[in-house]
Amino acid sequence: MLEMIIISSVKVIVVVVAVLTCCAWSTWLERKVVAYMQHRMGPTLAGPFGLLQPIADALKLIFKEDLVPKSVEKVTFALAPIISFVPAILTFAVVPFAADFEFFGYQVTGIISDLNIGVLFVFAVTSLGIYGIVLAGWSSGSKYSLMGALRATAQMISYEVGYGLSIIGVILVANTLSMKELVEMQGSDSIWFFQNWFVFKQPLGFLLFLTCAVAETNRCPFDMAEAESELVAGYHTEYSSMRFSMFFISEYANMLAVSAVGATLFFGGWQGPLLPSVLWLLLKMFLFMFFYIWLRGTLPRFRYDQLMNFGWKVLFPLALLNTMITAAFVMID
Amino acid sequence: MNEVLKAVGNVFLKMPLGFVVTLRHFFKKPVTLDYPYKKKPMTPRYRGKHYLERYDDSTERCVCCGLCAAACPADAIYMEPEENEKGERRAKIYEINLLRCIFCGFCEEACPEEAIFLGQDYEFSDVNRNAFIYTKEEMLVKHPRKDNPFKRLYRRVRKVHGVTDKIS
Predict the structure, then answer these.
(1) A59 at the B interface (CB within 8 A)?
(2) What is the dihedral of CA A92, A93, A98, A103, to 10 degrees?
(3) Which residue would you say has higher pLDDT here, B125 or B168?
(4) Cα dist from A283 to A258, A264, A267, A277, B20, whole Å
(5) DSSP state of A181
(6) Position A263 pLDDT exceeds 50
């Protein structure tokens, strides 16, 4: 029993540290990639290729003054960053990050908690993150923040349905909700190691998932909640110092979480030949991340009503269609 | 239904084109100049910070005639004359206020002694306003130059017009 607790704790610490590190260097990646897409160079001064920039940023944010405006609801204001930060990290509890391996004679599973309803857990937890945004916007007592929060709410209502429905296809095909089993199903020993990936069985489902995931994480082109050009900084206008950086980290942690879930559901998680399984997952995650950043470098922001139209009139019907077709095929089999 | 088809069509037909564009630009060389480390070469006629020339025997060319100060539209030049050991006239004080200077180059044109030139240096920012008043000592070149811009210009003029008289 004690052994199990120690192993689990170590796994938790390792995963959290890894996720936070990935978050930090995702900011670097984003700045670099977007910069090169705009013929700029991005950070170059801190370390080789500006690689130490995240550390410099973190130090700067820590030493900034923690401003709390007079008009805020103090308790909610303090809670909101935590509410948006925790669910983002929590997702990684059920993401299988490696194959089972042996470590100093102990048999270790490559997942923190193999819930039998892992997928459901992920979707429940990622939806909680929006409360952080809404509460932050409401408690700030600022018009811009409130607008951001309102938009986040509307966006959430429009997208959560499509987001949930987009993965039902996968669940129908796999007939399981456990992330671990989902990954194991997608493995293959043949030279076409990717033949069992669900992305080939659920192409439409994958596209829908991808679109909704971008909206879910409040990223461009669906970044209406923090639209810099319209709402100053949206829901975190009034935040500064570490409180702001918690929102910042949680945005990237959310991106990473959604990337990890996408890689697990559609691209076979840690499955892959030659390289160690952790690296395969990281590789797939960062391909997703690159796509996110690419998206930001390409598409302009949606308008408010366009987004709701798109969510309800395009994504929702398509997700239903996908579910229906998949269900029909599953029944025929 | 129509809206759905249109949106789906846009996603599959038009959006990839946009992605291709950004990806193509991703692999292009950035236009940014890595400034403090790499510098753009200035044009030969660039008008930067002033410098004062010397004769080949390293006496100062400036005789403190005041023509540059008269020509200066910004009234940035102040000077006081004195005599050197040989009894020749030279500047005791020669100051240019670079905060007033508009870098028009009239002083360079007005100078009958080919003493003052606008150089290539543009990195003379400072936090102290007094630092922008450049004195004679700061602007005088350490050693006489073999080739000042006017000499080069004269050589070209002589070549074009076939003038044969010598200038120092």
Answers:
(1) no
(2) 130
(3) B125
(4) 14, 12, 11, 10, 22
(5) H
(6) yes
A41 contacts chain B (CB < 8 A): yes
Residue B164 pLDDT:
60
Note whether B4 contacts A314, CB cutoff 8 Å: yes
As a whole number of angstroms, the distance between CA A85 and CA A106 comes to 32
Q: Suggest the residue from A31, A33, A37, A208 to mutate for an interface test with chain B (most B CBs closer than 10 A).
A: A37
Residue B86 has pLDDT above 60, yes or no: yes
The answer to whether A42 touches A31, Cβ cutoff 8 Å, is yes
Q: Which of A179, A178, A198 is nearest to A188 (CA)?
A: A198
The fold of B50-146 is: Alpha-Beta Plaits (3.30.70)
Q: How many residue contacts between A and B have a Cβ separation below 8 Å?
A: 50
pTM over 0.90: no
What CA–CA distance (Å, rounded) separates A6 from A291? 37
For residue A298, give the nearest of B4, B18, B28 by CB distance: B18
Domain boundaries, chain B: 1-29, 50-146
Interchain CB distance below 8 Å, A309 and B34: no
pLDDT surpassing 60 at residue A133: yes
Reported residue count of chain A is 333
Domain layout of chain A by residue ranges:
2-332
B89 and B81 in contact (C-beta within 8 Å)? Answer: yes
Using pLDDT thresholds of 50, 70 and 90, give the confidence band for residue B147. Answer: low
| Distances from the Cα of A168 to the Cα of A162, A202, A327, A332, angstroms | 10, 10, 9, 17
- Taking CA A32 as the corner, what is the angle to CA A27 and CA A38, rounded to the nearest 5 degrees? 125
At residue B168 the predicted structure's pLDDT band, cuts being 50, 70 and 90, is very low
Average pLDDT of span A234-248? 84
